[in-house]
Amino acid sequence: xxxxxxxxxxxxxxxxxxxxxxxxxxxxxxxxxxxxxxxxxxxxxxxxxxxxxxxxxxxxxxxxxxxxxxxxxxxxxxxxxxxxxxxxxxxxxxxxxxxxxxxxxxxxxxxxxxxxxxxxxxxxxxxxxxxxxxxxxxxxxxxxxxx
Length: 147
Description:
CATH class: Alpha Beta
Distance between the termini: 12 Å
Number of domains: 1
Number of helices: 4
């Protein structure tokens, strides 16, 4: 796991609920990678982006606050990524995930993330995004419980 994501995860795992979260206690170098999702439970679960760090806004090249996660996650494994976030919202179990995408003529890209559910109905976490310097890495998705 990316060391920055481990620090983000450790902070959120130590909180008892959303009211315990104090952004001033998060190392400033981590804040650009942090996100907060509101869990909306109408007919189906939807995840509204409450906050997203500047590094993530830069990567996605558009402002995402107020939009639903389901609106912009796409690609060959987008449905699995969304289902993983939904699982976190439903089971309230913290998780780690990583997706690797091989783009034609480019180095593989990865998106690695942690997600921690905190009452009342929010998911806190972090994302790290970058290129892998090994062109032999295959596309894929993996997830595991976060401890």
